[in-house]
């Protein structure tokens, strides 16, 4: 934090930027560094794997509420989706990569298998198994 280029931001507090800096952390023991509130919401959503806005909201992940509203879904042409159905958002994509999305109630345990090069593999990312 001693080196970098200072610049203004929308809040007026300013930002110190360092281009291309990398931070590396060991993920052994399933420990993940969370450096920002924004990432906490992201990891919460991914770790839950849910596509139900009401379920996520009840668990404190409120960022998706507007995207599951009846008006929002209808405006995008998703008139067949139940209110609260977010579609294949981050949680679904990270936990069920390559699976076909049907709806927020469909069980995707069997679809969590990934077919790569004719072989069936289970995708497991320990660092994202946050509870």
What is the 3D shape?
Answer: elongated
Low-confidence stretches: 108-131
Succession of helices and strands:
EEHHHHEE
Give the overall average pLDDT.
Answer: 71
- Derived from helix and strand composition plus strand pairing, the structural class reads alpha+beta
Distinct helical segment count: 4
The span between the termini is 32 Å
Number of strands: 4
Total number of domains: 1
Largest sheet: 2 strands, antiparallel
Strand and helix map with partners:
Blueprint (H helix, E strand, L loop, with lengths): L4 E3 L7 E3 L19 H12 L4 H6 L11 H6 L14 H6 L17 E4 L2 E4 L9
Antiparallel strand pairs: 1-2, 3-4
Report on this structure.
The protein is α+β, with helices and mostly antiparallel strands. It has one domain. The protein has 4 helices and 4 strands. It has helices at residues 37-48, 53-58, 70-75, 90-95; strands spanning 5-7, 15-17, 113-116, 119-122. A two-stranded antiparallel sheet has the order 1-2. The chain has a two-stranded antiparallel sheet with strand order 3-4. Strand 3 (113-116) and strand 4 form a beta hairpin. It starts with a strand and ends in a 9-residue tail after the last strand. GO terms for molecular function: thymidylate synthase activity. This is Thymidylate synthase. Pathway: Pyrimidine metabolism; dTTP biosynthesis. Residues 3-100 form the Thymidylate synthase/dCMP hydroxymethylase domain. Keywords: Methyltransferase, Transferase.
């Amino acid at each position: 934090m001693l080196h970098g280029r200072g610049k203004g931001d929308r809040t007026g507090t300013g930002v110190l930027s360092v281009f291309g800096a990398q931070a590396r952390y060991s993920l052994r023991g399933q420990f993940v560094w969370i450096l920002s509130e924004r990432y906490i919401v992201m990891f919460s959503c991914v770790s839950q794997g849910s596509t139900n806005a009401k379920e996520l909201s009840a668990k404190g992940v409120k960022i998706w509420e507007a995207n599951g509203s009846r008006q929002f879904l209808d405006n995008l042409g998703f008139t067949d989706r139940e209110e609260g159905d977010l579609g294949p958002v981050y949680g679904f994509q990270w936990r069920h990569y390559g699976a076909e999305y049907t709806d927020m109630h469909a069980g995707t345990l069997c679809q969590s298998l990934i077919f790569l090069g004719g072989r069936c593999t289970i995708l497991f990312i320990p660092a994202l198994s946050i509870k």
